[in-house]
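User: We ran a pulldown and think these components assemble together. Before we commit to crystallization trials, I'd like a predicted model of the whole complex to look at. Sequences follow.
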Amino acid sequence: MDRVGVIGCGKMGFKHMDCFRRIPGVKVVGVFDTNTQKCNECGGVKHYDTVADLFKDCDIVDICTPTNTHKDYIMEGIKLKKAIFVEKPLCRTMEEANAILKEAKKKKAKIMVGHILRYFNQYANIKRLVDTKAAGKPCVVRISRVNGFRRGSNNWFSSLEKSGGVILDLMIHDIDFLMWCFGDVERVYAMNLMSKGVQNTDYALAVLRFKNGVIAHLEASWAHYSGFRTSVEMACDKGLISYDSRNPNTLAVEFAGGRNFKDSPVDENATLVELKDFINYTRSGKIPKLDIDDAYGCLEVSLAALESTKTGKVVTIKKANSKLKYK
Ligand SMILES: NC(=O)c1ccc[n+]([C@@H]2O[C@H](COP(=O)([O-])OP(=O)(O)OC[C@H]3O[C@@H](n4cnc5c(N)ncnc54)[C@H](O)[C@@H]3O)[C@@H](O)[C@H]2O)c1
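Assistant: Here's a predicted model for the assembly, 327 residues in total across the polymer chains.
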């Protein structure tokens, strides 16, 4: 039996617990949260008074706490030889990411970061269309992810230092997805509200130039209170790939001359599929769809976008995103 300990019982911790319970051979042994009231809301699972006691009782630790707290729990997990699932982003700063990567490499730790788009059928299908050149060579991309602002526990999302704003919360998903499709990013230019001192909401636009020449325009918003939605438009030299979550079962490719390709991926619980991939990794060693280098590279580009919002300048990614290869 794989024994999982969940740290942080907010939105994601609760969701993960539900998913882990559905994976055969996995048991959620208990939870730890600095707000004991949150533990009480979990019901039917042991509450630990200290995280040290939770670590003693589990083989796998699942970190679902605010972003600025990830690093300390990851380092403790590596020290105690636990397999680690941590929600995205890997951590809040590159200094933290460098420390994690160094230690993880030394100890050959098994760590996976929750970049969940790779587990959504719609996005995985777009990636397949890119890989097979179904619509030809991708040139220009427009991608969007919008929602209303969420306070989270103690309004932590409103603190740029803790959350990184909408760029590290929402845009990072699309950055990971695009890097999965196209590889390393060369330059980034971005603008947002939070870096200008606007509070309790954020809205960001970024332009990424990939080493393969693709240009992508990314939109991420916490100012869309009408609800969560995402979309992708990928203009390729032989067709346009598009997806809009308002019509979740249709992924389309439009070709000149009116020939259309349509796909109807069955909706699955992407978090469950993601956590199954992680558990399989802990059991068999088979690298999941996403490794720690991917998460590191994605954080590097996301933080470069955040830097650009502060300086108003284009940021060139100096390190190749994949210099510190883990495998
Ligand atoms: N993959 C996704 O789609 C997705 C979606 C939302 C959030 N996230 C990520 O998940 C993580 C958690 O976000 P959330 O929305 O669940 O936040 P949340 O505010 O809903 O929950 C966080 C929980 O952590 C607890 N907590 C705070 N500091 C702690 C500490 N030091 N130690 C232990 N517990 C602590 C809080 O009391 C709260 O219960 C973040 O890193 C966020 O970026 C991922």
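Residues 142 and 217 are 5 Å apart (CA to CA). That may be worth checking against your pulldown data before setting up trials.

User: Thanks, that helps.
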